[in-house]
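Could you please consider the sequence and fold following this short note?
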Amino acid sequence: MGQLRFWGRPGSLLAVISLLLAGLLVLGYLSFYRSVTVVILVRHAEKNIEPGNSNPSLSPAGQQRAQELVRVLGNADITAIYATQYLRTQQTAQPLATHLSLPVNQGDANNTPDLVRRIKSDNLGGVVFVAGHNNTVPAIIAALGGGTFPIIPESEYDNMFVVTVYRMGKAKVVKLKYGNPMPASGNQGMNP
Protein backbone atom coordinates (compact mmCIF):
# COMPACT_ATOMS: atom_id res chain seq x y z
CA MET A 1 0.00 0.00 0.00
CA GLY A 2 2.97 2.33 0.73
CA GLN A 3 4.16 1.89 -2.83
CA LEU A 4 0.78 2.90 -4.17
CA ARG A 5 0.84 6.06 -2.10
CA PHE A 6 4.34 6.92 -3.39
CA TRP A 7 3.33 6.45 -7.02
CA GLY A 8 0.01 8.11 -6.35
CA ARG A 9 1.60 11.38 -5.25
CA PRO A 10 1.60 14.07 -7.90
CA GLY A 11 5.03 14.51 -9.38
CA SER A 12 6.63 11.41 -7.81
CA LEU A 13 6.54 9.35 -10.97
CA LEU A 14 7.79 12.31 -12.96
CA ALA A 15 10.68 12.83 -10.51
CA VAL A 16 11.77 9.16 -10.77
CA ILE A 17 11.60 9.21 -14.57
CA SER A 18 13.56 12.46 -14.66
CA LEU A 19 16.29 10.99 -12.44
CA LEU A 20 16.53 7.87 -14.62
CA LEU A 21 16.75 9.93 -17.79
CA ALA A 22 19.41 12.19 -16.28
CA GLY A 23 21.43 9.12 -15.26
CA LEU A 24 21.16 7.67 -18.76
CA LEU A 25 22.26 10.95 -20.31
CA VAL A 26 25.30 11.15 -18.03
CA LEU A 27 26.27 7.54 -18.85
CA GLY A 28 25.79 8.18 -22.56
CA TYR A 29 27.89 11.32 -22.41
CA LEU A 30 30.72 9.57 -20.55
CA SER A 31 30.74 6.53 -22.82
CA PHE A 32 30.79 8.75 -25.93
CA TYR A 33 33.72 10.87 -24.81
CA ARG A 34 35.70 8.02 -23.28
CA SER A 35 35.78 6.27 -26.62
CA VAL A 36 37.31 9.21 -28.48
CA THR A 37 40.68 8.10 -29.85
CA VAL A 38 43.34 10.60 -30.89
CA VAL A 39 45.92 9.48 -33.44
CA ILE A 40 48.96 11.69 -34.06
CA LEU A 41 50.74 10.88 -37.31
CA VAL A 42 54.05 12.05 -38.75
CA ARG A 43 56.12 10.99 -41.69
CA HIS A 44 59.52 9.68 -40.58
CA ALA A 45 62.17 12.34 -40.09
CA GLU A 46 64.91 13.13 -42.61
CA LYS A 47 66.87 10.09 -43.75
CA ASN A 48 70.37 9.48 -45.06
CA ILE A 49 70.68 9.35 -48.83
CA GLU A 50 72.16 5.94 -49.54
CA PRO A 51 71.69 4.81 -53.15
CA GLY A 52 70.79 1.15 -53.27
CA ASN A 53 69.76 1.02 -49.59
CA SER A 54 66.00 0.64 -49.16
CA ASN A 55 66.30 0.87 -45.37
CA PRO A 56 68.41 3.95 -44.57
CA SER A 57 68.71 5.35 -41.07
CA LEU A 58 67.99 8.93 -40.04
CA SER A 59 70.37 11.71 -40.97
CA PRO A 60 71.64 14.08 -38.25
CA ALA A 61 68.81 16.49 -39.18
CA GLY A 62 66.35 13.60 -38.84
CA GLN A 63 67.73 12.65 -35.45
CA GLN A 64 67.25 16.25 -34.33
CA ARG A 65 63.65 16.23 -35.65
CA ALA A 66 62.96 12.97 -33.78
CA GLN A 67 64.18 14.64 -30.58
CA GLU A 68 61.83 17.55 -31.30
CA LEU A 69 58.91 15.10 -31.02
CA VAL A 70 59.84 14.61 -27.35
CA ARG A 71 59.50 18.34 -26.75
CA VAL A 72 56.27 18.67 -28.74
CA LEU A 73 54.52 15.47 -27.61
CA GLY A 74 56.25 14.52 -24.37
CA ASN A 75 53.24 15.64 -22.27
CA ALA A 76 50.47 14.66 -24.70
CA ASP A 77 49.31 11.63 -22.66
CA ILE A 78 50.34 9.22 -25.43
CA THR A 79 49.34 5.66 -24.56
CA ALA A 80 50.76 3.74 -27.56
CA ILE A 81 53.40 4.21 -30.26
CA TYR A 82 53.48 2.54 -33.68
CA ALA A 83 56.08 2.59 -36.45
CA THR A 84 56.68 0.51 -39.57
CA GLN A 85 59.40 -2.09 -39.95
CA TYR A 86 61.86 0.41 -41.45
CA LEU A 87 64.75 1.98 -39.52
CA ARG A 88 63.71 5.53 -40.37
CA THR A 89 60.28 5.19 -38.73
CA GLN A 90 61.63 3.22 -35.78
CA GLN A 91 64.33 5.85 -35.18
CA THR A 92 61.76 8.66 -35.51
CA ALA A 93 59.56 7.12 -32.81
CA GLN A 94 62.28 5.85 -30.45
CA PRO A 95 63.21 9.08 -28.59
CA LEU A 96 59.54 9.69 -27.75
CA ALA A 97 59.07 6.05 -26.76
CA THR A 98 62.13 6.19 -24.50
CA HIS A 99 60.94 9.44 -22.90
CA LEU A 100 57.49 7.91 -22.22
CA SER A 101 58.76 4.41 -21.32
CA LEU A 102 56.56 2.89 -24.03
CA PRO A 103 57.44 0.20 -26.57
CA VAL A 104 57.43 0.96 -30.28
CA ASN A 105 54.83 -1.40 -31.74
CA GLN A 106 55.84 -2.49 -35.20
CA GLY A 107 53.38 -2.53 -38.09
CA ASP A 108 53.75 -3.53 -41.70
CA ALA A 109 54.07 -0.46 -43.97
CA ASN A 110 52.09 -2.36 -46.61
CA ASN A 111 49.17 -3.28 -44.32
CA THR A 112 47.31 -0.11 -43.32
CA PRO A 113 44.05 -1.98 -42.54
CA ASP A 114 45.81 -4.10 -39.91
CA LEU A 115 47.39 -1.05 -38.25
CA VAL A 116 44.05 0.79 -38.13
CA ARG A 117 42.33 -2.31 -36.73
CA ARG A 118 45.00 -2.56 -34.01
CA ILE A 119 44.63 1.11 -33.11
CA LYS A 120 40.83 0.89 -32.92
CA SER A 121 40.76 -2.36 -30.94
CA ASP A 122 43.82 -2.04 -28.68
CA ASN A 123 43.89 1.72 -28.11
CA LEU A 124 40.24 2.81 -27.99
CA GLY A 125 40.00 6.03 -26.02
CA GLY A 126 43.77 6.55 -26.01
CA VAL A 127 46.25 8.89 -27.61
CA VAL A 128 48.32 7.07 -30.23
CA PHE A 129 51.48 8.19 -32.04
CA VAL A 130 52.30 6.75 -35.48
CA ALA A 131 55.50 7.26 -37.47
CA GLY A 132 54.80 6.38 -41.08
CA HIS A 133 55.82 7.28 -44.62
CA ASN A 134 54.85 9.93 -47.14
CA ASN A 135 52.32 7.54 -48.71
CA THR A 136 51.15 5.60 -45.64
CA VAL A 137 50.27 8.62 -43.46
CA PRO A 138 47.52 9.79 -45.86
CA ALA A 139 46.29 6.19 -46.22
CA ILE A 140 46.01 5.81 -42.43
CA ILE A 141 44.15 9.11 -42.13
CA ALA A 142 41.66 7.97 -44.77
CA ALA A 143 41.21 4.56 -43.10
CA LEU A 144 40.50 6.30 -39.77
CA GLY A 145 37.68 8.25 -41.47
CA GLY A 146 39.60 11.54 -41.77
CA GLY A 147 39.14 12.04 -45.49
CA THR A 148 41.58 12.21 -48.35
CA PHE A 149 44.99 13.86 -48.15
CA PRO A 150 47.60 13.86 -50.93
CA ILE A 151 50.85 11.95 -50.66
CA ILE A 152 53.32 14.05 -48.69
CA PRO A 153 55.99 15.59 -50.95
CA GLU A 154 59.42 13.95 -50.75
CA SER A 155 60.96 17.15 -49.39
CA GLU A 156 58.52 17.58 -46.46
CA TYR A 157 59.29 16.07 -43.08
CA ASP A 158 57.64 18.62 -40.78
CA ASN A 159 53.96 17.68 -41.14
CA MET A 160 51.98 16.44 -38.16
CA PHE A 161 48.39 15.26 -38.44
CA VAL A 162 46.14 14.99 -35.40
CA VAL A 163 43.14 12.75 -36.13
CA THR A 164 40.36 12.71 -33.56
CA VAL A 165 38.25 9.59 -34.12
CA TYR A 166 34.83 9.75 -32.50
CA ARG A 167 32.85 6.73 -31.35
CA MET A 168 30.50 6.84 -34.31
CA GLY A 169 33.41 6.52 -36.75
CA LYS A 170 33.54 10.18 -37.68
CA ALA A 171 36.94 11.82 -37.56
CA LYS A 172 38.35 15.34 -37.59
CA VAL A 173 41.86 16.12 -38.80
CA VAL A 174 44.14 18.99 -37.87
CA LYS A 175 47.34 19.45 -39.88
CA LEU A 176 50.25 21.09 -38.06
CA LYS A 177 53.96 21.74 -38.61
CA TYR A 178 56.70 20.91 -36.09
CA GLY A 179 60.42 21.41 -35.86
CA ASN A 180 62.46 23.37 -38.37
CA PRO A 181 60.95 23.74 -41.84
CA MET A 182 62.72 21.97 -44.66
CA PRO A 183 65.05 24.15 -46.76
CA ALA A 184 64.18 24.28 -50.47
CA SER A 185 67.14 22.02 -51.29
CA GLY A 186 66.60 19.84 -48.20
CA ASN A 187 67.91 16.36 -47.63
CA GLN A 188 65.51 14.27 -49.65
CA GLY A 189 65.47 10.81 -51.07
CA MET A 190 63.42 8.68 -53.37
CA ASN A 191 62.30 6.12 -50.78
CA PRO A 192 59.09 7.01 -48.92
Remarks:
- The longest strand covers residues 37-43.
- Residues 185-191 have pLDDT under 50 and may be disordered.
- The chain is about 40% helix and 20% strand.
